[in-house]
Design a protein that fits this description.
Blueprint lengths: L5 H4 L10 H8 L14 E12 L2 E9 L9 E7 L5 E8 L10 E8 L3 E11 L5 E11 L4 E3 L11 E13 L4 E10 L4 E8 L7 E5 L11 E10 L2 E9 L14 E8 L4 E4 L4 E2 L7 E5 L9 E6 L14 E2 L6 E6 L2 E6 L7 E5 L10 E7 L4 E7 L5 E7 L4 E8 L11 E5 L6 E7 L2 E6 L4 E6 L8 E4 L3 E8 L3 E2 L5
Parallel strand pairs: 1-20, 4-34
Antiparallel strand pairs: 1-2, 2-3, 3-4, 5-6, 6-7, 7-8, 9-10, 10-11, 11-12, 13-14, 14-15, 15-16, 15-17, 18-19, 19-21, 21-22, 23-33, 24-29, 24-33, 25-26, 25-32, 26-27, 27-28, 29-30, 30-31
Amino acid sequence: MKEWTIEERYRVLEDPEQIRDLYEQVSRSPYRQEYHVQPVTGLLNDPNGFIWHKGTWHLFYQWCPWGAVHGLKYWYQVQSEDLVTWKNVGVCIRPDMEMDNMGAYSGSALAAKDAVCLVYTGNHRDEDWTRRPNTCLVKMYDDGRASKLPWPLFGPHPAYTEHQRDPKIIYSPERKKYFIILGAQNKARRGCALVYESPTLADGWQFAGALKVPGFEDFGEMWECPSIEHIGNKDVLLFCPQHIYLPRRGAATSHSGYVLGTMDWDTLTFQPDGSFHVLDFGFDFYAAECAANLEGEDYAILTAWMGLPDGDYPTDDEGWQGCLTLPRELTVRDRRLIQRPLPELVDLRDGEVNPSDGTLPPVCEMELMISEGPFELLLFTKNGEGGMRISYNDAFRMITIDRSGMINRFNTEQEEIREHLIANPLSHMRIFIDHSSVEIFVNDGDAVFTSRVFPTEEENGFILTPNANGRIWKLRPAVKDDFVV
């Protein structure tokens, strides 16, 4: 695996031709996705600035163009009319000022009259590599122009460590005030969220205080990507606690999850109604973000990075890493978040496959109706052996995912088995398979398991227990993988 110098990782991309050869190399990879957003070259991580604005879905992601490495980050933009078919638009935010000289890090979006306002963390480092995280603003106008405010909205708060990032911007019409929530770490190395407020967007920002979440004062060492959403009649605090072990999560220490409750903006208190829940029970899911500008709806639209901080993947040597999950419809049911595939995804179906021959198309959707009793599905088998094992113990209502039988194994130090207890007996699964990913939706969204997988050409079979009836559809491409920078 390539060893990257700081100079290589933090090069400035001055001309698209600098990465054209890398794009041609990446395009030949057998693991390029057909209906998931993925990087043109290099590394993709957090989704950013997800928003519905004047008939178009705008979505950005963290992008390092040079290879599968975390270095100088840009915001790369994709667009969609239906959340299913996506096109590359190119770089929107460049780290081209002193305040963001080492990267335009994650953030969010808010719609304005004639623009989308993008708020992000400008990662500044001094010559001695001391970090100063700045909260910065870009206005992306409807005519395509992007204008960066040449100074930060505010800098880091001195009472907290240098880990202050991932601003989520919210406007409260009742209070006629803007709020920004930042992920942070206090001096005792405990994760938290900071709140800033202002009557105007471009100036006047003041520190309002730390978000109070009773019972979560000692929950991980850092909170990344915090957000507060209102879904149905519930407030939802989404965040990513780091450096904490959770039950049935193996050796993983970075998680993406949520707490249901009630938010009081006057006291900056989020009162939990229950415990922390993991959003996705698979191996590769992080930095979830909900689309902005869906006020008045009883649901949210969520996507996430199909990857992990500090993870390594088989495509790293090909010059790329990462993709985004399918956007999902998020609702509240029985004091839990429910994630469903978007109804529009059925438009990708491109012919049904006879499941009786046991051959798995490399890009497909599988739907299973499951009767009582234990259940097992093997995906990506080779001559009837190995593969990814999906099993269900009906006595305990336990679903287990085990990818240790794959030929290409990776991130094994975080273990290769995930388990989850489901609330109701297993009866239904929808499984979306792309060239290097699998997303499993259980019981109409009660649970989701998202994982990267890298099957070889010979790992193309599946085996299903007799108590399940299945249908399989090939899926047509939905992402234009054009070279746009």
